[in-house]
Amino acid sequence: MKIITTINELQQTMKVHKKSQQTIGFVPTMGFLHEGHLKLMQEARSQNEIMIISIFVNPLQFGENEDFDSYPRNMERDSQLAKEAGADYIFAPSVNEMYKDEPSVTVKVEKRTDVLCGKSRAGHFDGVATVLTKLFNLVGPDRAYFGMKDAQQVAVVSGLISDFHFPVELVPIQTVREEDGLAKSSRNVYLSAEERKQAPHLYKALQTGREMMLKGEKSAETVIESVTSYLSAHTDGVIDYVEIYSYPELKALAELKGEVILAIAVKFTKARLIDNITIDLNDKE
């Protein structure tokens, strides 16, 4: 495995593999790898001849008072995990390497961002789309792998690939969870012992909503009220949102039908946790 830190070396390296017509699987990350990332790498390794990951804490997707400076980083550990997962390359550029000058062109996401996390994080998905546009151009992957834990991001990336005609196949991977149901996340390390005990109730709340929908509940408002009540009763966190939309369009629904996403966000003392499930109500029978 080789660590690449410059754009020029990355472009030259990828050019060799493309000339040999080798398939390239790409896993973009912000590092501090956990089992969710390893699952993405496992899938990328099994489906492609070359597997590359990026480790880049992207400042453009952090807003004011968010944790860019304190975001956990451990390159030595990440390198070992990536090597064990079969990565051929890690692209780990500096901020200056990726954003040398004030940009003359920016990427702005127009849809699928005014709900869920995007509603309270103005500009976040513009930052995600900007860095992915750069990375897709630099790596030129055949397939790119994203976790459904951040289903809104997957929806935005789907739109980015479609609208800009990137020759990249988006491969969404189901959320990897702890044994008690808590979604794997780099931010879980910020939970206190008591908060860690409460955190699995996020997934249990989602399961409550799923059961209601599968049993025929058609009102989004009714499901949201039930999930909210469950979270309030079982956690001390502040509920940021409980929302239901069509997926991947992320449109409000007058009646629950088709494929939908039930998503939640809860703020604990030092960590804001998100989780979601997608449900195809066409298959409920």
UniProtKB/TrEMBL annotation:
Keywords for the protein's UniProt record, in alphabetical order: Ligase
Domain of life of the organism encoding this protein: Bacteria
Entry keyword annotation includes Ligase: yes
Descriptive protein name: Pantoate--beta-alanine ligase
